[in-house]
């Protein structure tokens, strides 16, 4: 069982990357045969997508690598950062390039969709958008969870949620992903 996880953000200190990594660690703890790989979107930086650039460049290696990694996984965990109510430019750009390889970007993989932000909204808008559109991109969403007020609810030193209710909800979501 191979689990790919990433924060949909290129921030070096991404709180969503931390949350995605924590969820991936829970998956590894629940099954000793689970391998996890946490991606960093900075490793997939590409020019801003346009059809003109696509004609010039074809399919960039970074997009192909990302698509292949998703295809070789058995489950995908994404935690979405919210910029102005929507996806970060870094994620949307990578997604747009990947969708030109195949619109079935998520390749029928089971998915856990997460989102967090420092505020009380917990990046709920972008999570709703991602959840609503996943089926169009062959994503099988098994569970989703927004964590509000990240800095109040996440113990950065020990990389875990310190709010027991959220920790329980995340454990259940990870179990649903791996069923
Ligand atoms: C340009 C910009 C727009 C933002 N818009 C929102 C927003 O709409 N909703 C929200 O909850 N947080 C918003 N934030 C705050 C982010 O949630 C916060 O920066 C968070 O750390 C982003 O996640 P990341 O650390 O994983 O990149 C915004 C931040 C930036 C820089």
What does this structure look like?
- The chain has 179 residues and is of the alpha/beta class.
- The chain is 42% helix and 22% strand.
- The chain has one domain (2-178): Rossmann fold (3-Layer(aba) Sandwich).
- The chain is built from seven helices and seven strands.
- The strands form two sheets. The protein has a five-stranded parallel β-sheet, with helices on both faces. It has a two-stranded antiparallel sheet with strand order 6-7.
- Helix 1 crosses helix 7.
- The radius of gyration is 16 Å and the shape is globular.
Q: Determine and state the CATH class.
A: Alpha Beta
The run of helices and strands is EHEHHEHEHEHEEH
Largest sheet: 5 strands, parallel
Counting H and I runs of at least 4 residues, what is the number of helices? 7
Q: Which CATH architecture?
A: 3-Layer(aba) Sandwich
Distance between the termini: 12 Å
CATH topology label? Rossmann fold
CATH superfamily (homologous) name? Flavodoxin domain
Oligomer: single chain
Could you tell me the strand content as a percent range?
15-25%
Task: Walk across the major sheet and give the strand order.
Answer: 2-1-3-4-5
Shape: globular
* Gyration radius from CA atoms, angstroms: 16 Å
What helical percentage do the residues reach? 40-55%
Identify low-pLDDT runs: none
Structural class: alpha/beta
Task: Kindly report the average pLDDT value.
Answer: 98
Number of strands: 7
Indicate how many domains the architecture comprises: 1
């Amino acid at each position: 069982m191979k689990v790919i996880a990433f924060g949909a953000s290129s921030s070096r200190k991404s709180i969503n990357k931390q949350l995605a990594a924590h969820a991936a660690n829970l998956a590894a703890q629940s099954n000793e045969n689970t391998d996890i790989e946490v991606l960093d979107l900075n490793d997939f930086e590409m020019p801003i997508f346009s059809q003109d650039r696509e004609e010039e460049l074809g399919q960039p290696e970074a997009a192909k690598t990302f698509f292949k990694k998703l295809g070789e996984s058995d489950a995908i965990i994404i935690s979405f950062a919210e910029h102005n109510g929507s996806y970060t430019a870094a994620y949307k750009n990578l997604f747009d390039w990947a969708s030109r390889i195949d619109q079935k970007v998520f390749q029928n993989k089971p998915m856990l969709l997460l989102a967090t932000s420092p505020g009380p909204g917990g990046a709920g808008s972008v999570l709703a958008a991602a959840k609503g559109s996943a089926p169009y991109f062959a994503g099988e969403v098994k569970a989703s969870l927004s964590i509000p007020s990240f800095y109040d609810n996440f113990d950065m030193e020990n990389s875990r949620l310190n709010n027991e209710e959220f920790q329980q909800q995340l454990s259940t979501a990870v179990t649903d992903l791996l069923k």
